[in-house]
């Protein structure tokens, strides 16, 4: 069985690390047509952190940070003190096209909010997946990843582990960048309706986080940001194929 066919994309996050972008209605109006849905701005004017709830993740905004959140809370832009996150909650079968569409949206959003005078120090793409297949299959997969997978005659009974690989990628003809390829396999308890009754079940999840290495000599201008998000579908597909290569 091809485990890739059992992956569902739960959400996507695109990130750039830039100095704080201040709230302005002019910027909100520029971004509205790109989002394609109506969203609500929220600015933390209090001296204490503010909590923003969402299905994919809960977010804490520090004083001075702000966000744009769609009414259904499935799309958001988080303007943090050192970075900007574009987050989209999904419920779709994995496909290269889905990640490619998200990358194109990130290109439009970031190019609309970042002036040429602001340079980006780091960049990242981070999809979250849910494995929807049989538990035995994902545990068998986990056992193939490790040599020390048996203790006192008992094989591993879960799929909880993380790994990091540092890979040099060509962003453009003139730019090679080292990226951290982080994978995290874990389980969560999720309420699922079964025959009309909500039941708590164990669900296998996978986080990928492909982020550039900290390097003071590397700066991403708007062109490099566009080049990166034009290639995120390939970066993610390569990492998925590394694990699920049946």
How would you explain this protein's 3D organization?
Helix content is 25%, strand content 42%. It contains 4 helices and 13 strands. The strands form 3 sheets. A 9-stranded antiparallel sheet has the order 2-5-6-7-1-8-13-12-11. The chain has a two-stranded antiparallel ribbon with strand order 3-4. It has a two-stranded antiparallel sheet with strand order 9-10.
Task: Please supply descriptive tags for the structure shown above.
alpha+beta, globular, 13 strands, single chain, 9-stranded antiparallel beta sheet, two-stranded antiparallel sheet, 4 helices, 246 residues
Q: Mean pLDDT score, rounded?
A: 88
Number of strands: 13
Question: Which consecutive residue ranges, at least 5 long each, have pLDDT under 50?
Answer: none
Give the structural class: alpha+beta
Tell me the strand order in the biggest sheet: 2-5-6-7-1-8-13-12-11
CA(first)-CA(last) distance: 8 Å
What's the helix count?
4
**Overall form:** globular
Rg over CA atoms, rounded to whole Å, is 19 Å
Write the H/E string, N to C.
EHEEEEEEHEHEEEEEH
The helix content is 25-40%
Q: Quick one: biggest sheet?
A: 9 strands, antiparallel
Strand content: 35-45%
């Amino acid at each position: 069985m091809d485990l890739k066919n059992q992956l569902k994309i739960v959400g996507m996050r695109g990130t750039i690390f830039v100095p704080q972008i201040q709230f302005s209605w002019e910027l909100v109006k520029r971004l509205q047509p790109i989002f394609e849905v109506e969203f609500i701005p929220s600015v933390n004017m209090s001296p204490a952190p503010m909590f923003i709830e969402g299905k994919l993740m809960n977010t804490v905004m520090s004083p001075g940070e702000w966000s744009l959140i769609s009414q259904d809370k499935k799309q958001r832009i988080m303007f943090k003190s050192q970075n900007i996150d574009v987050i989209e909650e999904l419920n779709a079968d994995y496909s290269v096209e889905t990640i490619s569409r998200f990358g194109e949206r990130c290109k439009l959003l970031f190019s609309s909010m970042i002036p040429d005078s602001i340079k980006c120090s780091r960049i990242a793409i981070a999809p979250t997946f849910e494995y929807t297949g049989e538990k035995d299959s994902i545990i068998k997969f986990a056992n193939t990843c490790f040599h020390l997978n048996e203790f006192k005659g008992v094989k591993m009974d879960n799929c909880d582990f993380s790994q990091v690989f540092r890979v040099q990628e060509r962003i453009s003809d003139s730019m090679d960048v080292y990226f951290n390829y982080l994978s995290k396999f874990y389980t969560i308890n999720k309420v699922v309706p079964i025959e009309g009754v909500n039941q708590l079940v164990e669900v296998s999840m996978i986080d990928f986080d492909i982020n550039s290495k900290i390097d003071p000599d590397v700066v991403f201008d708007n062109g490099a940001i566009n080049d990166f998000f034009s290639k995120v579908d390939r970066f993610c597909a390569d990492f998925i194929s590394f694990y699920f290569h049946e």
